[in-house]
Each structure stands twice: as C-alpha cells, then as structure tokens.
C-alpha cells in the first residue's frame, strides 16, 4: 500500500489533499506542521510527502532537511505545495531535496500529474 503524509497547517487543504490522494490509492496520514511530520516519519516512513512550504513551528524547508537526514529519509518522493511562484523559491526547494512542486490552489488533475511524474501514479489506460 502506498502511503502519503500530507503536511499543511490548513485543515481544509489537508482534507482536499486527502480526498484526492485516496482516489489515487494512497493511505493518508496528516500533520499540521513540520515538527509533527518529522515525528510521523520517524514512526513510519511514507512513500510520499505532500508538503506545504509556509507553516508555523517548522516550515517545509526545515522539515525537508531533517527528513533527508533520517535513516530511509531519502526514499519518500516529496512534492511541495506553495503559493510562491518565484523561480528562486522553487529552485531552493528542489535543491533541498523536493522531487516536484505544485502551485496552490491545486486540483486532482494537477496532483495526479505531479505524482505520475515522480513515478507514484501509473498512466491512465
């Protein structure tokens, strides 16, 4: 079973992401910030992480650095979500270890396409 950790300080965004990813056959866990997400990864490393960039307590950038240093932390595919569209922002995230990015607001087609690009969702037949 593919698992995805959805990390966002917005309960609405987590709910929307959960609905989309469950339709793509992922089992979902949620975290409100990077600190909770890190604890979740220490308990059970997910297949993928849908990661908000701007959060209280620990932001997505800081979380990603910690994740990639954990044993097995190089394995999850990380797709970060942002409202920032500057190339420097996107480049910084990809350099930190993100595999792909999504601009907010997102929909099922965008999420499916990005998860397909990182090899987690098969092409529709």
UniProtKB/TrEMBL annotation:
The keyword Metal-binding does not apply. It holds the Pfam family Response_reg. Gene3D superfamilies: 3.40.50.2300. The modification 4-aspartylphosphate is found at residue 52. Keywords: Phosphoprotein. Residues 3-119 form the Response regulatory domain. InterPro entries: CheY-like_superfamily, Sig_transdc_resp-reg_receiver, ST_Response_Regulator. One of its GO terms (biological process) is phosphorelay signal transduction system. This is Two-component system response regulator.
